[in-house]
Amino acid sequence: MKQIHLAAHFPGVNNTTVWSDPQAGSHIEFSSFVHLAQTAERAKFDFFFLAEGLRLREQNGRIYDLDVVGRPDTFTVLAALAAVTRRIGLTGTINSTFNEPYEVARQFASLDHLSDGRAGWNVVTSWDAFTGENFRRGGFLPQDQRYDRAETFMRTAWELFDSWHGDEIVADKASGTFLSRPDAGAFEHHDKHFDISGRFTVPRSPQGRPVILQAGDSDEGREFAAATADAIFSRYGTLEAGQAFYTDVKRRLARYGRTHEQLKILPAATFVLGDTDADARERAMVIRRQQVGGQTAIKFLEQLWNRDLSEYDPDGPLPRIDPLVGENTVAKGRASVRMYRDPLATAREWRELAEAKNLSIREVIIEVTARQTFIGSPATVAGSINDLVQADAGDGFILVPHVTPGGLDEFADTVVPLLQERGVFRTEYAGSTLREHLGLT
After folding, report:
1. Which residues form the Luciferase-like domain (predicted)?
2. For the whole prediction, is pTM greater than 0.70?
3. Section 23-43 average pLDDT
């Protein structure tokens, strides 16, 4: 049987966190990061994952305050977590559009040293000029150019990681000096994106290179992952969709001389647990209504309609007017806006759903934005996770709790032991590096 890989996602800029829960805490205070990371480590998860927010989202010209507001620097948090964890991998999203290879490679090599080989890098590209306004590199690149730059960025970073071979410096204690090879850390790279040369300042780290993760779902993103990534995030948590994604990405590996085992596919997943399946379903409905309050429903509606709908009653019917087609001027910094490639067709689908089920605006949004992957008793959830992995709908899951920082506790205490009893999840870490956790050595 396949061994299951599990990771813990610290919720970042999102509207799925239930702030009304008495156990909900800060997304800024370090204690929240520590709690979630240490819980995941106690449960023997592969890695803790921190997403990135380079600019706070806005809607109608104001910060979208129904999301989590505020995002600390990824490297700072991961470096601090390296001191309070021992075995769990520490991965973060770092953008290849607005950063430079030397800086990012130096930071990840340092993190890999600080954590004794537990660093992972989720490589992403930026798609909008709105985010670019925070950086010297303003504007945005077309999708094909974004992935071209990202792949070149990756190759350049690898040259920097590999500029040290591990034996360049030898301590001569008799003379009190260090002896180094002439080419220690030397690098030179010249292409249309980067024109750099010099010496890399960080000796080879325990993993050599950080584990590379990627999250693109487009054809370019899938190809980029097949060529360069060690793991790819997926948004397909159902059997049929998961298997289709799994098969498509894995078949691309051969053209790059890679085997199926060299790329792990990890869908993002949410979960709701209960004493019984019925209890979990009831709890899931309560959570969905907490996640999508009246104002949140209107904000989501505005993102599709591309107009101010603040005068509408969230408990009333969908607008009779159609969405404004063209550039979205209402919502800034939201990836979901890009998903509405045909707003008029999506609006028709929502109207048909509302009419068929007699749903209000809020009830429609609750249905169309549902993200609860696993709902049931611990035994049911453990069985569902195992069934999907064994059926090649994924190699594991990245779990996103709806309460921070304690939302993973129940899963760690109830579901993980059942997976361990089945023999499909580790009871102890076998290795010390993230690459070993993922079986990539």
Report:
1. 18-391
2. yes
3. 94
